[in-house]
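User
Take a look at the entry that follows and flag anything odd:
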Amino acid sequence: MGSPSTHRWKFFRAGGFDQVRLEAPEDLAALRNLDQKLWAALACPTANLELDQRMLAYIDVNGDGRIRAPEILDAVDWTLARLADPGSLFREEPLSLASLHAGAQGQQLAIAARRLLQVLGRGEEGTLTPADTDDLAALFPPGEPNGDGLVPAALTTDAELQQAIADIIRCLGPQKDRSGEPAVSEAGINDFFAQARQVHEWQRDAEKHGVYSLGPDDEQAIAAISALRDKIDDYFTRVEMVAFDPRAASIMNADEGELARLSAMNLADPGSVAELPLASLQHGESLPLVAGINPAWRAAMEALREHVVKPVLGDVDSLSRSQWQELTARSNAYFAWQAAKPEVGILEHLTVERIAELVEGDYQGRLLALVARDMEVAEAAGGLVDLDRLLRLQRGLVPLLRNFVSFQDFYCRRDKAVFQAGRLYIDGRSCDLVVEVGDVDAHSKVAANSESFLLYCACTRRGQPVRERESLNIVAAVTAGDEGELMVGRNGLFYDRQGNDWDATVVKVVQNAISVREAFWSPYRRVSRLVSEQIQKFAASRDDALVNNAAARVGGAAAAPAESTAMTRTFDIARFAGIFAALGLAVGVLGAALASIFRGLLALQWWQWPLVIAGVLLLISGPSMLMAWFKLRRRNLGPILDANGWAVNTQARINIAFGTTLTQLARLPDGSDRALRDPYAPGPRLLPWLLVLLVVVGAVFLAVRAGWLGGAAML
């Protein structure tokens, strides 16, 4: 990169920077020698681009969802090496056998092209387009090897292997075969059986050390033993105490006093007798499992008999101490065995027995044999894949370069740029600089640096999905006109590049200058808005005061005396004398100022009046227009794309002239007839203007008569 080259480059200037023109195969061949500091972008995402997604996947070799400059250069070199006429990259024409290079790489593609032409029923003089390879399943039937190293279930007629493939897909997830079918790879097969062998060894350890199952339902068996372990141990301990000292029989059993106390209670809840022994000690060494059980523990004993005793000891009615010790020992060994259970994902989907069957049946070797069989045709099938890659690069590589190495499509306006998602119609205008975004808030934080007026819209297409989506988010740059009624909640209509219409609702606005014309009127609008708000606030406050005073007077009239004193009705002249004096002084100062202004204006020649008016307007609007002009000069495409994952390598300005082409305002068609009279428009109201004119004339007349205008008083 950046090494000396004899190639003579051509540049054009747009957006405030020099951009390279890519117009001939020689430009592409020398692209690796072009200094990347002169590239418009160095990386871009594969998503949200109006380009062939399969072509972008071919260029994105590492599959990270991003395309970088080195990958672009490799794609250019690969394509040029396989085309006999690289000029076809700049022409939208189909690919023929004559288009392929005569070298070894081109000949391999020629073999694949002949095979495809045969499949399509065309002769060797036929041509191919990307549409011919859109459906890879037609080129690579799932029941035949296709050389991608992936094995779908349809590749074998063996039902056992088909079930094994389905089991692996269920555990590890599918990989997509060239035929479009879910499949497994060699790495996936090896990973699955590595986990399966761990489970198999764990199962064999159980048999080796005599760890046996407690029955068909281990979990319920363990739960039953855990619930009764302490209570059954308590029973046999009491039996031993009675054997040790017969006097303990009456004490270890519930005595008459405890039974008498319980008899006075409500025994509807069996829990009230839970503290009594599990069964009467008269049963001795055999614990009854059916009759004579403490009612509080009857359900637990039934679960123990059903899930533990019957599967191991058979249908017995009592349990001896030795049998109980055997069951608890077995459960302890089972707990230890379960603690050593491998933590592998396949156990979430398959039973231990099924896993053992797959390991012992040598399914791994049989599946790997299918992978080897599929790879036998890799070279021949790879030719079809490379042909598909070439067809797509021949059609889409140059458009990608003209939106990556330069922004030629965007600034020349012959074609839409690949990052332009469509056109937004809203508030009597259309916006062409529309980019699809993911996270609105995250994008706006970066895109705000573009100095552009941005509308973020949520677009929906209910019941009519496009590319399996019924909603998306866009950002539109408003680069001409004025702000108008652009606000959150405003609705519009968005057309994507395929012409599909979407309902668009503004969800966020990033405010910036739109045009110098809007900046001219901005101070007056702000003043008008301020005056309107203040008048409304004043009117509201006076209305509240009037209501409150009326309420106070009505309430005070009932409590106040009927007669008012003379002092309350007396007007205090001395109190208001100062106020009147201050008002008179203010009026005098204001009159003198107005007189001075009128004197200066009347002294002007008629032709100087427009200059004065223009100067006043410039004084008011000039600062706002100047600020807007500077901001409009700084409008930048870069942050809008960078917020989407691009690595824009330059400023990419959007100046005022270019901005007017990106946002179109409503305009009547040429040759249209227009009726200027609006039947619902309010008629002319002359009275207010006559009153203003009379006030001005009266003020001038009084000023002349009072001599405030000096020499003008002689009139």
Notes: The radius of gyration is 45 Å. Confidence is low (pLDDT under 50) at residues 562-569, 711-715. The first strand starts at residue 11 and ends at 14. The first helix runs from residue 25 to 29.
